[in-house]
Design brief:
Layout lengths: L7 H31 L3 H30 L6
Helix pairs in contact: 1-2
């Protein structure tokens, strides 16, 4: 049994979403470590948090859009 076929566009977008999530988390961890190590002001930590939240919300919206597009696609039987 096979699932619905993915278009090449969906596959590329799913890879992009995965990359954005990975880079956002690594950058967020690095910013928090650097802020604590070098004694940066707390405002920079909030900026890093907001940037990470923005990347994750974007990833969630793109993933939801891919899921909805696949949900409406005709299925093979």
């Amino acid at each position: 049994m096979t699932g619905p076929r993915r278009s090449p566009d969906d596959t590329g977008q799913m890879r992009l979403v995965g990359g954005v999530i990975a880079v956002a988390m690594l950058a967020w961890l690095a910013a928090n470590w650097a802020g604590g190590h070098y004694g940066w002001p707390v405002e920079y930590a909030f900026l890093a948090d907001l940037a990470a939240i923005g990347a994750l919300v974007w990833s969630l919206l793109v993933t939801w859009r891919i899921w909805r597009r696949r949900d409406g696609a005709p299925r093979e039987r």
